[in-house]
Amino acid sequence: MSEQAFRKTKGEYIIDTDPALIDRELVHRYLSNESYWAKGVPFEIVSKSIDHSLCFGLYHGSRQIGFARMVTDRATFTYLADVFILEEERGKGLSKWMMQEIDTHPDLQGLRRWMLGTRDAHVLYEQFGWTVITEEQRPRFMQRHFPEVYRSEKAQMP
Ligand SMILES: CC(C)(COP(=O)(O)OP(=O)(O)OC[C@H]1O[C@@H](n2cnc3c(N)ncnc32)[C@H](O)[C@@H]1OP(=O)(O)O)[C@@H](O)C(=O)NCCC(=O)NCCS
Question: Which atom of ligand 1 sits closest to the CA of residue 124?
Fold first, then answer.
């Protein structure tokens, strides 16, 4: 897949989609130990997911401090996953800046549907046009969900 350069700066902060810049150990450490959605995820799975997604790294100088991953065909659909800002950098508007810049990425224009799952950050996403799926819309959507997939061998997908 041809990767176009995408880099935005705000003072000392940088958003870049270059997969070579991503600190995969840091992303894995956060997702595996701290996140509420991917606890225990193996390094190899995180690394493979980065290889096959459009990833937005957020950096303070050369140090990575945040991340967001778009699982997308770059034509019709995208799923936003693995959004985080390291604790010491939260509350500075950085995730809002990241959402704002993600919206401008050339490969995410004109898509028919964007989706995400969140436990408690609805208010963040609502500021960028996301809406909760309503009761009337709900029957149109289905999922296969394996929340225990990283917890035991038995829970692996068949
Ligand atoms: C959620 C998270 C990415 C927000 O990052 P941040 O840079 O601290 O957020 P910002 O400073 O850009 O502001 C976030 C905005 O969303 C709002 N918000 C809504 N839900 C929130 C939540 N669960 N956590 C933080 N902010 C939330 C804030 O009030 C703020 O809005 P405001 O400025 O209008 O008051 C960060 O708290 C984080 O990494 N949390 C742990 C991982 C996580 O929950 N990721 C999201 C998974 S869907």
Answer: 16
